[in-house]
Amino acid sequence: MGFWPRFGMWVSIFLGMVGIILENANAFYLPGSYPHVYPTGSDLWVKVNSLTSVETELPYSYYSLPFCKPSDGVKDMAENLGELLMGDRIESSPYRFKMNVNESEVFLCNTTVVADEQLKVLKQRIDALYQVNLMLDNLPAIRYTKQDNFSLRWTGYPVGFRVDKTHYIFNHLKFTVLVHKDEGNSVSKVMGTGDGLDAFPVGEKSGDIAPGYMVVGFEVVPCSYQHNIDASSKLKMYEKYPTPIDCSPSGRGPYQAVKEGHPIAFSYEVAFVESDIRWPSRWDAYLKMEGARVHWFSILNSLMVIAFLAGIVLVIFLRTVRRDLTRYEELDKESQAQMNEELSGWKLVVGDVFRAPAHSELLCIMVGDGVQILGMAVVTILFAAFGFMSPASRGALLTGMLFFYLVLGIAAGYVAVRMWRTLKGGDHRGWKSISWRVACFFPGVVFLILTVLNFLLWGSQSTGAIPISLFIILLALWFCISVPLTLLGGYFGAKASQIEYPVRTNQIPREIPPQKYPSWLLVLGAGTLPFGTLFIELFFIMSSIWLGRVYYVFGFLFIVLVLLVVVCAEVSLVLTYMHLCVEDWKWWWKSFFASGSVAIYIFLYSINYLVFDLRSLSGPVSAALYIGYSLLMVFAIMLATGTIGFLASFWFVHYLFSSVKLD
What we know:
Number of domains: 3
Keywords: Endosome, Golgi apparatus, Membrane, Signal, Transmembrane, Transmembrane helix
Helix content: 40-55%
Pfam family, one: EMP70
Radius of gyration: 30 Å
Number of helices: 18
Family: Belongs to the nonaspanin (TM9SF) (TC 9.A.2) family.
Subcellular location: Endosome membrane; Golgi apparatus membrane
Number of strands: 17
Membrane topology: Multi-pass membrane protein
Strand order of the largest sheet: 1-16-13-17-4
Structural class: alpha+beta
Distance between the termini: 73 Å
């Protein structure tokens, strides 16, 4: 396929995704979770996703290994931007079921490992514990195993296994499809026809339509079985294998070894089981997390402790400031003048507290990007908490984050330009330059890191690599949506009135007295309190990203985010007040990094997670990917949390010096 057809395909996918969301906005079921009712005997087609492994974190195409292909060729299924960015490559497969019709010994095909390179790749995938990911009606295949009297749940199944120096492949699959009978109150009936689904409404007088079933569970048990190649070579796809295939421990025959030039026969069987599980509850099996009780109580305990500490800090802080203001305002003018001469503290930096900081343009740019990232996080998590981005909507979370980030460019431009005008005394010249830099600063860093990581993925021939056509789509979204909206926000910021300072700034800067302790040491240490609100939830988020676990407690995550905003603001206020009390009027950057320093601890935690929780991660490419994506996350968190602290400190300093008369 050439470049322009691929380009048109990505554009059509993006526009189609937007159209589907708008079309279903008023539907009862959320986007991505619409029930499909299949009449008895209708075709059900299994889809395949990329091969994944926690050993390497490098996804590969399903058909990079010698698996059977559909008779009409492999087709790329409908995907959104989020799926592509996550490395998902959903494709058609030859596994075909008929609704509520049990089948056994179904033959698929014979494949042969011809070249030595193919054999080497297959053995590497088996040694790296790569998993095959199948989907039916948007449900991932789930596998149950027992270990030490505990039942474990896994999504997908291993490519194979190794005994001593011999590698074996799982070439026979036992599927179990749990179905729930339609009770006649569904929104639509859906006839499964491979890629396309033709939906038609069901009215009250549609009794002539045969009752259908909804898929509520999809389980798989892999088996390695050495078929009779002479018998299988005479069969066509979907014909019945002539002899029973017994994969039970008592009747299992020899395993299917992987050898160069030796054919491998693939087969499957499927059993439909009617279940009491209702359609809205079909994801419960995937969302059951081990240690859920510990998860909930740990988060609740963390929230209570952080809220209690934050309350104490806030009360002490407000009482201290109020006492200083009260003492100062009770004095007459003569006493105030004498007090200004004798006392030290924040009252003496009145002529310097609003002096523009060094690298003020960079500060405005980082604050603008921080507003954009923070707004994206708040809106995305809020939508996810209300269920609009459920696990059933694969890739919807990342797609939503990208969409909200693009739209919120207008907020970034407005805040950055208005803050820049305030620092420049109301001069609006050069606002276009500031807006352009805001639009290019964070996305530019992201594209730089992604390009480097993409070269590593291309070199590894992984499906996690972003295609060139998708890169062009992202650049088009950047320059056609984000940049114009940022410029529009900058225009409004240039037209808005500047924030007036309550006091005048002296021409000669005041000398900062020697400090007993390094001020930046306090700034770096201030990030420990915001980190305390995150570290428990951070473990579950990183497990979801790197270990393939489903994360769904977005309600708690939103609460944690609110607490993080409050704690970041309070920590920055306290540090700013402490610096003003020792006559250090250079508070601008310190207020930003007082809360933004939480990113340092998150990065250290990421390294700790890599060393102790991802011990099996192997290869320099995998480690480079982990470090690269961790740096992206940490950089975004630094901008967002630093913006919270800076804006809170700016408001506090403005309020503090406007609440008392100082000459």
